[in-house]
Amino acid sequence: MIPGWLARPLPPFPHVSLLYKIRSFGLDYVVLHLGEEGTLYVTRHGWPLLEQLLPAAWYTDQKYASIGRRMSVATGTVYRVPAEAAGKTADLLIKFSRVGQEVPIWIEPSAEAHITQQDIANARFVGPFEEFGLCEEIRQGAFGPPQLHIRTKSPLAIYVPPRRYQPWQLGRQDSDFDMSNNTQAEDPTHLGGAAVHLDMDRDYVLVYGWLHGDDAQVCYSRGEISREEFESLTPMVVAELEAKGFLMLDVKPLHFILRKRHQRRSSRTGEADGDFLRRNGQLVYALIDYELVVRTQPHRRWLQEQLNASLAD
Known about the structure:
Layout: E1 21-24, E2 27-33, E3 39-42, H1 50-53, H2 55-58, H3 63-66, E4 69-70, E5 78-85, E6 88-96, H4 117-121, H5 128-140, E7 151-152, E8 155-160, H6 174-186, E9 205-209, E10 214-215, H7 216-221, H8 227-243, E11 246-248, E12 256-258, E13 278-279, E14 282-283, E15 285-287, E16 293-295, H9 297-312
Parallel strand pairs: 7-15
Antiparallel strand pairs: 1-2, 2-3, 3-8, 4-5, 5-6, 6-9, 8-9, 10-12, 11-16, 12-15, 13-14
């Protein structure tokens, strides 16, 4: 149920009172306290889909499992869920945050030269608000070449169910979890934001918009892209991420979504028709995983300079 303080029809996101908003890792949220249903943090991307984002549409009674489909290739707990409410359906990607859990890292051979032993030693699953913030930073692409744009999923909402667990049930380690809470206050994008304290005994569920297309590994296995294109994708993504100020520790073809020019499905194969989208002859991809993304040193310095300049004004 939508809280009573919200008018009908819903006001545009910018018009929602600041009393009900927070800003964390550079991203604004409307905070909905849903009583026994927990708390929902909704971004401007998710605001038009509020009815479909409420837990009754996809979470209550584990709907994400009963009406959704678990992504078998994902190493975490991820579902694709058609959330229906108010006569409309939203195609959602539901992902349970692994913040505070031990990080198993396998480095793609073609990316090894870009990842140091220190990067691996410092690896951690970022917290839910940090992950959304990094996703939005990649989307906006303020750092680096302005003509370079990296596509991502849309970060819609973060849901905190009411149930509490023993930390061991969630696989969390104190030091890694505490680091995620500390990172929030130290982050340059946090200026003027609210410190959203993460609870060790609560689940955090990230809700993204589903990104249509297929991952590069699947496309290659079906013979839709050549071996040369497949093997050139990871180095290209690594280079473009670095140019925009990011390093992805688990970069791999499973995280690159490719789309065809015509998404109409073939009646014979069920697959999308047509050739893949390309830019300057290269495959156009969308990046779909951000829980092991970190900023590069040049990007961090640039953000700090932006912060110092804003404080000096």
